Amino acid sequence: MRTYSTIELDGLRVNSLERPYLAHNEPIPELWTSDHLSRRLVEAFTVLRRLPRVKGPRAPGNHGPAYMHDWADRLAQVEDPEILKEHQAEQNRDRSQPSALDIQHMDQCNEFLRAFRDQDELGALVLARWALASAFGQSVAKKAKEMGMAKSSFYARREGGLKTCAAMLNRRGISVF
């Protein structure tokens, strides 16, 4: 299997939201724009994904002794592409905790969506579902279908929602981060 350098991987990416939004690469605009808002919403749901899971009472089970796999079982697991893919995905998962600033920005983005929901409930729902799907690597077309919308109308509603929400934030004088 061929390994790619980071420069080659950047060239293979299609969606601009796959790259991290760093201030030294792209300056922060003075006013909210739809592009900047979309990046911040996706980042907010990415932070939500990185938050630790809620700990509570454990589910029943896992009280028996651990099962020891023999060598033949291990070899069979490695040869199965499905199991290998799941194992590699688990190994490559980002386990870093978000910073306090990341969590603060996530909360602000959630407040933006709540305030925008008072203006345009469907637009806020489309923005939230789109950002969630983008951050979690889910299918946007599937989210549109769940809402009973065509993919093109979902994206049109998203674009309109981003412009309207950015204008609302600018009218309220909310600082850009």
Index terms:
elongated, 177 residues, 8 helices, 61% helix, mainly alpha
If you had to describe this structure to a student in words, what would you say it looks like?
- By secondary structure, this protein is an all-alpha fold.
- The chain is built from eight helices and no strands.
- It has helices spanning 6-12, 34-50, 71-79, 81-91, 100-119, 121-136, 140-146, 151-171.
- The chain is elongated.
- The model has no long low-confidence stretch (mean pLDDT 83).
Brief rundown of the structure:
This protein is mainly α and 177 residues long.
Number of continuous helical runs: 8
Q: Roughly how many Å apart are the termini?
A: 41 Å
Structural class by secondary-structure content: mainly alpha
Quaternary organisation? single chain
Count of individual beta strands: 0
Categorize the overall geometry: elongated
For the largest beta-sheet, the strand count, sense and barrel status come to:
none
Taken as a percent bin, the fraction of beta residues is under 5%
| Whole-angstrom Rg | 21 Å
Name the helicity range: 55-70%
Spans of at least 5 consecutive residues whose pLDDT stays below 50 are none
Order of helices and strands: HHHHHHHH
Mean of the pLDDT scores? 83
